[in-house]
Request: fold
Amino acid sequence: MADYDVIVIGAGLNGLVAANYLAKAGKKVLVLERRDLAGGQAVTEPFVDGEFVDPLHAGGQLRPDIASDLGLASHGLPTSVGEPLISILPDGRRLRLTAEPGDQQTLSSIGDISKRDAERWPGFVAFMNRAASFLDEAYRTSMPRLKSLKLADGMPLAKLGLKLRSFGSKDMFGVIRALPMSALELTEEWFESDEVRAAVASVAVHGVTLGPMSAGTGYTLLHNWLNRGGLGHRRVDGGIGRIADTLVAGLKGRGGALRLSAEVKTVLVDDMRVRGVRLSDGEEIVAPQAISAADPRHTLLDLVGAPELPPEFVWHTQSIKMRGSVAKVHLLTDGSHDLPKGTLVVAPSIRYLERAYDAAKYGEMSTEPYLEITTAGRVVSLHFQFAPYALREGDWGQERSVLERCAIDTAARIFPTLKAVIPKLG
Reply:
């Protein structure tokens, strides 16, 4: 007899959102998480000396429709506040950008570099907001099952097409063109200064193993613009882990269950049907359905296992590229770092960003990295690209100290007092 209707593997935000919707639909749901805290990549953890840190993501937000559907406000969903993107240029100037069309600080900052670019900025922001709204609509549109397509199944796609047409021919064409373009091509159509182009393009390459000259970074720019509500991160009061806390509270309020430190080792399958899972300690939990929030290769090849799947499907799964190249370095300062609030980026030119990516192509760590610097109290966090997960030579046990030194040295070149306020380095 089944213990649960559905088992959700992984308590990241995707898994928790899915579990909440299932529990809302009346299903008996169990979420299993191998770590001792929920949230996946979006957690807030103790650092040192009573400080807390967001290990990977410096900010974020849930989609408003999800928050509304699940009534998360009643469970304490935190608000997030957008912050400016500040590009630190080699000569000491700071290019401050926001997605507010009439923000005079932004227009003045751009105007110091290019009057023409300042004039074009409000139009660019308006276009990006419209394009992001289309992407948002596409993300919430259910795709029809093509094998049994009926007229009613195609209505969501028809509505999506009508939204695109409502933009007018110029913007409609612009959105369609932007998706496969490179960030270089997209920004060149709007701006003349390399500094503005690079600052915008840094958002396009954030978190992906691509350079600004790579096809498709027009799409990643739109995607990140939508998620951030502009260029800078959306800072969550109390840390991004509060979003996961809210989802856990919502799940439990609907009768769902969460078990931490419960690593799923195997998805149990009989005759191509799930019958439950086996944990790393040998415990078996019965359920007729399982949803995995882990990556597809781990889910299908490790948890389910290749023998349970058709050979061609296994081959396609093995071919999925997973090329992580982000590292984070967190520094505890004495609190007098004096860094400005915002999302600070070291992205002085398009060529600089592309050279940083070039290293990753050959399995090497960037020696002149794209950095994104954020602060939270005494903690200074350095988002480092590019640092390939699989190095061509050596391993991260050996190269970790090299990356740390490179990240700190790069940041210290633009903030010369930084090393002095890190007690162990000062």
In short: The chain has 14 helices and 17 strands. The two ends are 63 Å apart (CA to CA). The CA atoms of residues 276 and 286 lie 4 Å apart. The first strand starts at residue 6 and ends at 9.
